[in-house]
User: What shape does this take?
Amino acid sequence: MIRFFMFLILEYFSVQLSNMKIFTAAQIREADAFTIKNEPISSPQLMERAAGKCAAWIGEHYSQQHPIYIFCGKGNNGGDGLVIARMLQQQGYTVSVGIVQNSSKASPDHILQLQALQKHSPSSLYEIGYITDFPALPANAVIVDAIIGTGINKPIEGWVAGIIHQINDQHHKHPIIAIDMPSGLMADVSSRHAPVVQAHHTLSFEFYKLAFLLPENAAFPGQVHILPIGLHPEYITHTPARYHLSDKEMMRTIYQPRDPFAHKGTYGHALLIAGSYGKMGAAILSAKACLHAGVGLLSCHVPQSGYQIMQISEPCAMCITDEGTDYNTHFHSSIDASSYKTIGIGPGLGTQPVTARSMELLLEAFPRPMVIDADALNLLSVYPYLLYKIPAGSILTPHPKEFERLFGATTNDVERLELLSKQAVKLQIYILLKGRYTAIACPDGAVYFNNTGNPGMATGGSGDVLTGILTGLLAQDYAPKAAVLLGTWLHGFAGDLAAAHLSQEAMTASDIISYLGKAFQEGL
Ligand SMILES: NC(=O)C1=CN([C@@H]2O[C@H](COP(=O)(O)OP(=O)(O)OC[C@H]3O[C@@H](n4cnc5c(N)ncnc54)[C@H](OP(=O)(O)O)[C@@H]3O)[C@@H](O)[C@H]2O)[C@@H](O)CC1
Ligand SMILES: Nc1ncnc2c1ncn2[C@@H]1O[C@H](COP(=O)(O)OP(=O)(O)O)[C@@H](O)[C@H]1O
Ligand SMILES: [K+]
Assistant: This one.
C-alpha cells in the first residue's frame, strides 16, 4: 500500500516536472517576471534559489579538493555565478571569482550579490578586463562559466571572445560547467560562427532552450541538466510555445492499449511499397517494423525479383508482385483505396521515371494520410509538383540531405527549422526531419523535438524501421500527430534499449525492431 502511494506521489511529481514547452529567451524573462510578481518572490530570492540548485549540483559532482574557478559577467548570469561562489565557499571549497568586464553597467542583482561576496570573501575576487587577465589554473580546477546567459543580445566579439577562446583551450584539461547557457550561445537564433563556450555540462534553468537541440550547436552544451527553479506554473501552462520536447508522459497519454475483443481487422490493413533489386533489405526492415508496431494486416508490394525474398524473410506479411522485375513500376494498380487503411512508400524503392509516374497515380488515387520516405522523397524532389498531391495529414520522413533536396538549402539550423515548419503548414502534412533530436513539424506550425535515440542508430536501415513503425501506427487508427510523435519516440527508445544491451557499435537496424516489444512494455 505504501509503495502504491509512493508510486502515485512519484507519478504526480514526474508529471509536474515534465515540461515539454521550449520557451524563447523573451518568454523566459516574462516567466521570471511573472513568478517574481505572482508567487510572490523577490528577484534576489529567485536568484538564490536558482544558483542554490547549481551549487548543490556542483557539490554532488566535485569534492572540496577541486578549486572552483568561476567566471562571472555583469548581468544576472554573473549574479548566479556570484551566489554559487558564496555558497560553495560556505561549504569549504576554494573559490576564485573573475568578474569579466563585458558591460559598463552591472545589473542590480549582480551588484547586490557582488557586495555580499565582497563582505564574505573579498580576496577571492578579481577583475578580467583583457585577455591577459585570464588566470593560470591548477591541475584539478573546475571551471564555471557564468559570463552571459539568456540575456545575450549579439554574438560576442573582441577581447571577451578571447576569454571564451581561453576557456575553450581548457576543454581537455578541466571540466567546464555552464550556468543556464554556454556563454555566447543564443537561445533562439543561430550562433553559427560565433564564439561560444564548449561546456561539458550545462545546468539550465527550468526549460530546454531551442539552441541545445540544433545540430550546429552540438559542440557547446555538453550534457544538459534541466534544474527546476519553481517558475510559476500558471505562466508555463497558459503561455503558448511553438517548440516542444516530447517525453514519456506525453507518450503515455497517446498510447492506446489493445481492445480485448479486437480481431485482426481492428488494427488496419497497411500496404508497404518498397524494395528493388539489391535493396530488398530496406523493404524487409520496414515490413518487420510495421508488424512489430502492431499492424493488423500487412501487404507488401515488391518487384518480381523481391517476391521470394520477402515471403521467406517475413511470413507474417502478404506479398503482391509488381510488373517490374527489379523495380516497382505499377504499384498504383494494386491500390484499391477501400482495401488499405494506409500506405508506407519509399524504402529501397529506386527513382526510375516510371516509378515516379506510378507514384503520381497512387497519390491521386489514395485519399488518406500515408508515410513517404527515402526514394519516394527523392522522387518528390525531382518532380516537386507531386508535393501538392500528397494527402493532407501524411508524414514525410526526410533526413537532412533529403530535406535539402526537397525544400532547398538554408544557411543555418534555425533557418532550416523555419523552412521545415513553413512547408508543413503550406502542404498541411507532418514533416519529420531526422537527427539526434528529430524535429517533427505539424500542419498547425508547432514543432516537436524527439528526445530518444542514440548514435548507435546512425547505421543503414534505421530510417526504414521508422517508416514501418509509423505505417503500423497509422494503420491502427492513431491520428497522424499521435502516430508521428509516438512512433518516433518508440523508435528511439527501442534504439536506446538495443544500445544498452548490445552497445551502440554492435547494434544494427534489425536490433531496433527486436527491442520494439520491450520499448512498448517498458516505455508506455
Ligand atoms: N530566467 C529566470 O527565471 C532566471 C534567470 N536567472 C539568470 O539570469 C540570466 C539572464 O540574466 P540577464 O537578463 O541579466 O542577462 P545575462 O545573461 O546575464 O546577459 C546580460 C549581460 O551580458 C551582457 N552582454 C549581452 N550580450 C553581450 C555580448 N554579445 N558581448 C558582451 N556582453 C554581452 C550585457 O551587457 P549589455 O550589452 O547590456 O551592456 C549584460 O551585462 C539567466 O541566463 C540566468 O542565469 C536566474 O538568476 C534567476 C532566474
Ligand atoms: N545520433 C543519433 N541520435 C539519435 N538518433 C539517431 C542518431 N543517428 C541516427 N538516428 C536516427 O536513426 C534514423 C536514421 O534514418 P536514415 O538516415 O533515414 O537512415 P537509413 O536511410 O539508413 O534508413 C533516424 O530516425 C534518426 O533520427
Ligand atoms: K553562462
Notes: The chain has two domains: 16-240, 248-523. The two ends are 23 Å apart (CA to CA).
